[in-house]
């Protein structure tokens, strides 16, 4: 059930190949293509809940799940080691980008750039939902570049390092949440490969990503993207809740039938009559009266 045709993961696998390199590219792509700095500048990490939401959707998400469950090989411990090797530099780079965000903010119009950041997330959501739709949309890097060009305002340019430790902490938290999510997927891989439908989770993740830009634009969606992701995860896992109960009820029913047969004077191991043949054929048998 865990086999996935995730369009983003498949495209990246063709580019880089290899489990560790593919996972590194998937998880670090938001740092490379400018999506994570854009979210920092757009105010998506101003609160811890926002950091949790960004970490799960941007660094975690369906592409990371698809790579770990459908592409990576080895035991859960080996996969967890790969996740940590990729995740520790990821957390460090996220903190560094958050620290230097003011240098970028000083040369752009944040109001304009927020709209382009929302457009980038919407583009990624569409690409996650469907490879066909994604082919007709511009690359997120192109959208980020256009956003920088449209919002650039060099009049207030200055080189500054972030003096707000809370924002750096939230950026680190977002990366840490993404790494923790990937680590949990790797450790629970044997179970999830059996019971989780990755493509179903992918569509739910796309819905959650589609709600995130609306939150960035100030609409009253709050933590709706996070809630949508949680619901997608719940619906993507098929847990056989009633298997044991059904077996117990079947066994109880069989035992009750045997007790009823014994109470009627029959034999618990007696076979039912064959179709077309009466159970009482009226033949004389030793020890049995002919009218019985």
UniProtKB/TrEMBL annotation:
The keyword Lyase does not apply. It holds the Pfam family DUF5794. Residues 244-292 are annotated as: Disordered. Keywords: Membrane, Transmembrane, Transmembrane helix. Residues 251-268 have a biased composition (Low complexity). The chain crosses the membrane at residues 22-45, 51-70, 82-104, 167-189, 201-218. This is DUF5794 domain-containing protein. It comes from Natrinema thermotolerans.
